[in-house]
């Protein structure tokens, strides 16, 4: 099955992107906050998130409009043989699964399962912005066609 994020700006992560304590050490996440979604390509709920996750990555990763916000968007595929340790460590039993990434004092990402009210785009954006996304500088247009 084709990778859902193959032609997107989403950062694809695997076991090599974590140290032995499962701190995220991928260079694009160094000293950055962010979100990581664990997904499976065959999962309908995961497939439903592709548009929004890709849109967030376009805005925050690489040369996106909000690249300077120090926020990144990544994914881990449960079907990637190079991510087996991640899937086991994060005890993936339901997908999609979302993690908030916060840098530690060494710049490594520490993942905590997202505990927001829901997994709707507006809730994730509110978490990113620390307030209502309608009033924040990192205002993104929630275009229904992209979600």
TrEMBL record:
Domain named Thioredoxin: residues: 2-133
Gene3D superfamilies cross-referenced by the UniProt entry: Glutaredoxin
Xref: Pfam families: Thioredoxin
Position of the signal peptide: none
This protein's name: Thioredoxin domain-containing protein
Lineage: unclassified sequences, metagenomes, organismal metagenomes
């Amino acid at each position: 099955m084709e990778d859902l994020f193959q032609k997107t700006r989403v950062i694809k992560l695997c076991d090599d992107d974590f140290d032995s304590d499962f701190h995220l050490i991928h260079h694009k996440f160094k000293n950055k906050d962010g979100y990581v979604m664990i997904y499976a390509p065959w999962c309908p709920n995961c497939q439903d998130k592709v548009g929004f996750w890709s849109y967030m990555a376009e805005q925050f990763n690489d040369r996106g409009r909000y690249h300077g916000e120090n926020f990144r968007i990544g994914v881990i595929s449960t079907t990637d043989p190079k991510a087996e340790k991640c899937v086991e460590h994060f005890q993936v039993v339901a997908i999609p699964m979302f993690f908030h990434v916060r840098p530690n004092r060494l710049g490594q990402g520490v993942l905590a399962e997202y505990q927001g009210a829901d997994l709707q785009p507006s809730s994730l954006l509110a978490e990113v912005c620390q307030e209502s996304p309608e009033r924040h500088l990192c205002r993104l247009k929630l275009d229904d066609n992209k979600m």
